Amino acid sequence: MPPLKKEIAATVIISYNKNIELPDEELDRKLNLGINFKAWWKEYDELRIQHYATLLKDNDHSMLVLLPKYSHGIYYQNPQLVAKLIQDNFNSYKKE
């Protein structure tokens, strides 16, 4: 994906270092995949963080927020934080 244009504000929220969830473990057992989920998620997290950091690196109006131990549904776990980050990003961009 190409970097964002400088004039586009973005807030990227990434959950990382998450707890291994029961559906992951059940799928692994059911299909006998032998996945080491802790190592797999660590590598996946690093790739996502690097990808989004590259995407946003030249954009003055963007934020990359890392939230350890959150699940995929950050907006369910902490809707106030998600709303605040979006509002803060919007407010910082509209001032210029």
Explain this structure.
The chain has helices at residues 22-31, 37-56, 74-77, 79-94; strands spanning 11-16, 63-68. By secondary structure, the chain is an alpha+beta fold. A two-stranded parallel sheet has the order 1-2. The model has no long low-confidence stretch (mean pLDDT 86).
What keyword list fits this structure?
4 helices; elongated; 96 residues; alpha+beta
- Which band does the percent of strand residues land in? 5-15%
Q: Report the span from N to C terminus.
A: 27 Å
Overall body shape: elongated
Largest sheet: 2 strands, parallel
Q: Figure out the total of helices.
A: 4
Assign the structural class, choosing from mainly alpha, mainly beta, alpha/beta, alpha+beta, or little secondary structure.
Answer: alpha+beta
Radius of gyration: 16 Å
Tell me the series of helices and strands, N- to C-terminal: EHHEHH
Could you tell me the number of beta strands? Answer: 2
Oligomeric composition of the shown chains: single chain
- What are the low-pLDDT stretches, counting only 5+ consecutive residues below 50? none
Total of domains: 1
Largest beta sheet: strand ordering? 1-2
Helical content class:
40-55%
Overall mean confidence score, pLDDT: 86
Q: Secondary-structure blueprint of this entry?
A:
Elements: E1 11-16, H1 22-31, H2 37-56, E2 63-68, H3 74-77, H4 79-94
Parallel strand pairs: 1-2
Question: What does this entry show, briefly?
Answer:
The chain is α+β, with helices and mostly antiparallel strands and 96 residues long. 52% of the residues lie in helices and 12% in strands. The longest helix is centred in the middle third of the chain and has 20 residues, at 37-56.
